[in-house]
Amino acid sequence: MSLTTPSPARRKLKPEVDREILMKAFALMCQARRMAETYDEKRDVCGKYVHSTSRGHEAIQLATGLQLTAIDYLSPYYRDESILLGIGLSPYELMLQLMAKRDDPFTSGRSYYGHPALRREGLPVIPHQSSATGMQAIPATGMAQGIAYLESQGLKEANGALVVCSLGDGSVTEGEVAEAFQMAVLKKLPILYLVQDNGWGISATGKEMRTMDAYEYAGGFKGMDRMAVDGADFIDSYLGMRKALETVRKKRSPMLVHATCPLLGHHTSGVRKEWYRGDSLEEARQNDPIDRLREYLLQRGETEETLWAIQTEAAAKISEAYEQAKDSPDPSQSDFDTHEFAPPAIVTEQGERQPEGGEKVLMVDAALHAVDDLLKNHPEALFYGQDVGRRLGGVFREAATLAQKYGDERVFNTPIQEAYIVGSTAGMSAVGAKAIVEIQFADYIWPGMNQLVEELSKSCYLSHGKFPVQSLIRVPIGAYGGGGPYHSGSIESTLLTIRGIKVVYPSNAADMKGLLKASFYDPNPVVLLEHKGLYWSKVPGTEEAKTIEPDADYVVPLGKANIVQWAAEEKVSEGSSAVIITYGMGIYWAKEASRSFEGRVEIIDLRTLNPIDWEAITLAVNKHGRAFVLTEEPLLNSFAESLAGRIQRECFRSLDAPVWTLGAANLPAVPLNVGLEKAMLPNAEKVRAALEELLNF
To answer: Which listed residue (258, 266, 267, 487) is catalytic?
Structure first.
């Protein structure tokens, strides 16, 4: 498209942009180009870590960055260095990240170039996000949903704040992007999706990957406004983005801007354009945004001398920034392991666990009452998931009456979108909303694992503590008699391989209430596993899951185990005792089995699987000399086996027998038939037989 042929966006608007903005954009474009050239020229230094640059995308990115304000939120992708220059970051700051230096303002050397995590007065907030293509769409949409929620409750000024989510065209084919678009139009959220379309993935072209571009695709989402701009033309991009941003600010509904632009740099420094681009490179160079803006400025009366001076100044600035960044210190290795978690809010047990005159309550009701208390006391809290809204109140009635009490904006159903349910909590957290969400069954958490692993778990660590994700994810788990292969699974071992999340597993009503509240107050991602077989105490032998209901102030700190059964001192002294270390349903199998060995069995309820109460475990193992780790999961390669191995290694001198383990049979699913289920799973009789072997070893 030539400069004299206005696009639809420019035909609708006067093609006029202030000279000050044009000259600033040209200067920043020159800086961006010189940065990319420097990275290539200094590959011995700059090529140490993989990076991407914005070459070819400068016009649309600067048109965006120059118009964002301090009230906005930005979710860029890894090629968006020119957006970062546009909002006010310096080349030196970006180069600190490029070289993984200590003073990198985003991650202190922990993450790649173009991966900002920023809270700075006067600039948009940029939460941490991963490199995974398209995954930022869900947390970004969660931010917009959080803004809309806080505004609806009068907790945030309705000042026109919005979210800009930047995406590459290749990422729009991701299913998680579709989930984000769906929620944005369903809830009418203030978010602008900027799709930069350069026609390439890595080596695959757009024609190979899709039958329509993002503009056409957005037409399928009813309620999504859309616009197409020439992303290589700064004037067209600036005017288009101005109109788009104004629209979202006023309408408080989503919009997509599709910007076509050339890819003039490498996909990344590790995938060189020369390897596969061929003739397309020369064609792309004919559409260089810098050359086009330069030509436009000359037509407007700027002189060659003025523009050359700007280019010269940009080159000098980049040279100075490079030398300064190169000579800056590397991170200290002494704090490489800091900020896995933000410090917990609850560190001691508080409130009354068994208040005088209290009545016994089912575990499911204890959970309901805990959420009720939280919603009542924290207007920034909201609860959502599949079927938790007013019509059903949860498939286990774990949310019954909550929507009626607190309204459909606070307690509501989501589409069947586990990725959105999990990932949106990161965005909610970034804007100050506190989400309690539910995955309907543990067996269906897998679509949400991408978000849990890449976005929630890494955010605190990679942002150097700036963006911990406060997220409470409730997950009904476990077998409960005929639930079958898709409603009976246990997933804790998979979860426990993810660093940066906490995993909590209550076994009774009192712990359910206290741990759920502590999980809400924890500033980190917490997955709360709630055993369906204990919810109603309908499974034989689980009557003790009903307890006196604690008071409204009761909280249990995460990471503290509970001894639910003590061994007799004389049995310990004579060396005939053992400790069973378990959680969830295992508590009730262990209690039943231990009746055959009166006074000889201590039972530890872990309650929290990460962080684990290692001190309680080692004290008990050293005391008894015999340890038994019991789980409902298939045993092979499980958390239980890992824990047994750690006990064996670190408590070896205290052991009088190998660490015993018992779990379900090593099968891929729980069968439907109750007889087959019984054959697969542990039970009290199987625990009794194993315990007898251990005690007689």
So the answer is: 487
